[in-house]
User: Fold this.
Amino acid sequence: MRYPLIVLILALTALAGGFAFVEWSKGGSGAGLYSRHWSPEAVQGYWDPATFYQSPDSVQGVFKGEECVQCHEAVTPGIVADWRNSRHAKAGERVWCSGCHGDDHQRLHLPTPAVCGGCHGKQHGEFKAEADFGFPSHVLAMDRALSAPHFVDKPKAEVQSCVQCHSVATKCDSCHTRHRFDAAEARRPEACITCHSGPPHPDDETYFASAHGRLYRAEGDQWDWSKPLVKGNYKVPTCAYCHMEGGRHQVANKSLWKFGLLEVNPHTAANKALRRDWVGLCGDCHEAEKARQWLSDLDRERKQAWKMLNEAEAILKGLRTEDLLFPAPEERPAYPLEQRPRAHIGFYEGQASAFYNVSAVERDYFEMWYFDSLGAYKAAAHGDWARISKGHKGMAASLEKIRQQAGSLRDLKIVEQKAGIEASTEGLWQRGAYTDYNRDQN
Amino acid sequence: MRYPLIVLILALTALAGGFAFVEWSKGGSGAGLYSRHWSPEAVQGYWDPATFYQSPDSVQGVFKGEECVQCHEAVTPGIVADWRNSRHAKAGERVWCSGCHGDDHQRLHLPTPAVCGGCHGKQHGEFKAEADFGFPSHVLAMDRALSAPHFVDKPKAEVQSCVQCHSVATKCDSCHTRHRFDAAEARRPEACITCHSGPPHPDDETYFASAHGRLYRAEGDQWDWSKPLVKGNYKVPTCAYCHMEGGRHQVANKSLWKFGLLEVNPHTAANKALRRDWVGLCGDCHEAEKARQWLSDLDRERKQAWKMLNEAEAILKGLRTEDLLFPAPEERPAYPLEQRPRAHIGFYEGQASAFYNVSAVERDYFEMWYFDSLGAYKAAAHGDWARISKGHKGMAASLEKIRQQAGSLRDLKIVEQKAGIEASTEGLWQRGAYTDYNRDQN
Amino acid sequence: MRYPLIVLILALTALAGGFAFVEWSKGGSGAGLYSRHWSPEAVQGYWDPATFYQSPDSVQGVFKGEECVQCHEAVTPGIVADWRNSRHAKAGERVWCSGCHGDDHQRLHLPTPAVCGGCHGKQHGEFKAEADFGFPSHVLAMDRALSAPHFVDKPKAEVQSCVQCHSVATKCDSCHTRHRFDAAEARRPEACITCHSGPPHPDDETYFASAHGRLYRAEGDQWDWSKPLVKGNYKVPTCAYCHMEGGRHQVANKSLWKFGLLEVNPHTAANKALRRDWVGLCGDCHEAEKARQWLSDLDRERKQAWKMLNEAEAILKGLRTEDLLFPAPEERPAYPLEQRPRAHIGFYEGQASAFYNVSAVERDYFEMWYFDSLGAYKAAAHGDWARISKGHKGMAASLEKIRQQAGSLRDLKIVEQKAGIEASTEGLWQRGAYTDYNRDQN
Assistant:
């Protein structure tokens, strides 16, 4: 009896999924899985030009590069000046506007990574190769955002704040600002920290609080940023020096601890090889022995962090088994295309679900994991000792709070059963009011 | 019967108001409406020199400029060096110390905007013209602070922190530091962010988190800041580039959304004209169509924000009508010169009153409005997408909390009426203890 | 009967203390009083090299300076380049690697302040002289950390975050980064703010929010930092300009308010002399009269702060006398080497004890004192008016909360006595769970 039901459900799911793929439309809701439920702000045309950019139709005609420059010298002199200072303008064979934008003014396009890759094949190839390493990743960043069902439930302004940075996958000027497209710019930390700052990834804050970052702040303006990122050229390393060694446009292969998101076994052969690479890199300035100790310090920090996180997760799984999470999974609003809501716990079971429509104790766990643990990891990796302290103190407090809540929930259950009372489900995240509000507004 | 009572009240008010205007005294409490109740710290002599500066009497004599410089070269060489580097010293006809400070060392004065305006008439005229546009305003900033009755109830140190920035109305070196008085300095964001930072006006934070700000941070030190703020001279705009277009010393006329303080109808003819100006300005570097979309994004952000704010305000007005605010207006300490306390709600009904001596639910609304909404506005205006998210998440949570509190207050009233209980008024802000403490200390 | 007991206790204490001094061991737990209970991470070898540094044994041989340089030019070119740019390399008689590190590659050492003091005797002498002024102090910073019993109860990552900065006592490159060892670097605020930032000592934040700091941010990169810190050389002062006048390596003697930690009588002859020194220093740029007023403003700020702190402390002492603190002292975990736990209140009675294992009302007082008061002090001293406001608002709220809690505790006691109920001791800090957890992990 049960088997045909499952078949029916699967068939209906497929059908619903099929309808969800709406017609592709420039400037509309796009072609993603959830495009029926959500469409982005107009600025998405800048962030994901291949899908959303619409050319202005105010000027018509087909123009040669010299003509573009002549007119834009008056209209937008700043970008022309940037271009004149770029290698595009100084190269033996100039790269004119039309090379990247096309020459028909009513059918202009903004260049995608593939357009840039036409000349910069090595960099584009490295960039695409990041996909081999799974999440987190630059090249997969936009896909990751667009296929996340919980984005449909968040206010549009909040999703836009995610997508702005995830646009690093769909255009190159996140790091090489138009129309100078400078390698020197991208070697400096400012190119990275527009996105890599704030919780849950305080790379900005932790780097600038480190001894490296302090020296960069005080003296970096005097350094020659046209030099490649190799041994001896810079007094202290920047983001790119360590993470994009020698200028390689692929960051994922060096990740020891996967952004702090995953518990990693530091004793595998692959991980040991990675460690040797890092020790070699630190060795550009420091004793190998010291570098090894720093990596051990980092491992110990992670070990202590995961011990606390795993203990918290075990408590929550126990509560789920005992049916003590309020609201229970079946009381939560389901995501679009989902048949029924589920009580995910932790990252691999579904990070997204932990944001909204969960019980207070799950939310505490989520914040412990997302803010305190990730913050401490970034601090340990970059040498910001004060923020390690902040993160671990936060995790310890959360773990204790989760323990106490678990005890209270068990006690309450006993009392309620004796008294024959039904627990009520209240609060912003739990009842789905926030979700309803946003679905209504977006 | 009622009419004579009103006349009596008005007469008493006028009398009280009259007494409140105390004698003008340099270095004392000033001449403001509340000067009987409050006098500033000595540093006010720097911030509002026309009213409070007292000349030192340690040196006597009348001096010529060359004599001032000769002596101060030894006594305070830094400010002499700054002056030597200024246009005042390099101009054909030098502007000597006495030109601004007078020449009698026992009757020196610090220059007010009017003194500077003696030569810089165009700038001073533009600056004064801001008054035509109402609050918020630079030129009215000191008046605004001094005539706010709630300042009397705050700790002196807190009021000083307001007044330091509001001194932009009463001296010119808030932006053009003495004794260099450089236009180049004022073109850079640092000239603005001494004041324009932190809640409730995170202009600093939102600009530096934007793509514009990041480029300024990385490369701004290499730019030539002696150039005027016009198209083509700067790679990215700074505060002054957009808000003081071409160097105009009047900021108020370009305000689309009035600092985020007011709900504005974007469809009026005047507002549409403003939008055309902004699109023109963005057009120095960007496509007009993109600029229009950004302004629409901003409007949508505000529309969503005001929808939430108005909903919260409506809930509070309902509670006031039903007499459910604790403490009730008549239980709150009145301001000096006020006959009786009033339960203001929202900005136009009286922003000040929402700070202190209000019920918890009013305080939640105030913080939603003052911190979350204004923060989101600044973020949307400057392109800091992450802070838009933070603000809207905060507003959503506050609105839900206000809704729940309103429900609880109504339930409580029913229970109390049945039981014949009087509600008690407790807590720091509610009972006026904070107000009493401060009035005692100030 | 009581006297022999005290003798016995003292004898046992001495015995326990004696055992606690374990054998000295490089890279182990060190030689401190609590070394049996706690050992540092490996990075301590960098921070306190005299005690913890272990030379790498991968390379053997005894080398001359030219040989070191020849090899390290290839191995670590960055540090060789820094050295070549340093006075060590440019001096008539070069200071080679071996001068500071020794020449036996298996017995290398990292230089301690005493090693640097071999040549820089004046600076080292000034540095050591700080000890005459008591805490807070740079030269005593490491001792202070290592002899604090509460460090044993904190997570290792948190203690490391303290010790990193306290290593200023045990090496010179906290301010003069190896291998350039530049005086110019140490004249800039970045040299100080690696440590002097964040609560409870927001020197970084308050300086950069001041008029001085803003000008440094905008223009400091253009100044000539090779100039000594004397009158007329710099447009605005930096940390070192005021606190290390003329380059003196001793900061403690100018302290007016002892970091904000102590209540100071500003009317003693010694304090008045200090004030004259400060007025003289401010006089490099400002009128003496203004400088005197600023110091008075600071005194008034402190007076108001201490009034609130003392009121809070008096309430807590009352609660202690009435045995109303939960957990009571005897229920708290004792520190190692301590015979019994004690309920310290306030700074002089034992700052450390206020962190953990205290009642909620004591914790509130601690945060009022440690974060709000110290933050307001730094703000007042550096001219960051907004942060003065933040601190005083926080203190007022805490004081009110402490008052209310004291009332509730007294009421509760009466109710409990009538009902014959024992109070239960719950919560993270109170029951010692955090302490137990950390002792287990460290």
In short: Chain B touches chain A through 45 residues (CB under 8 Å). Residues 385-419 of chain B form the longest helix (35 residues).
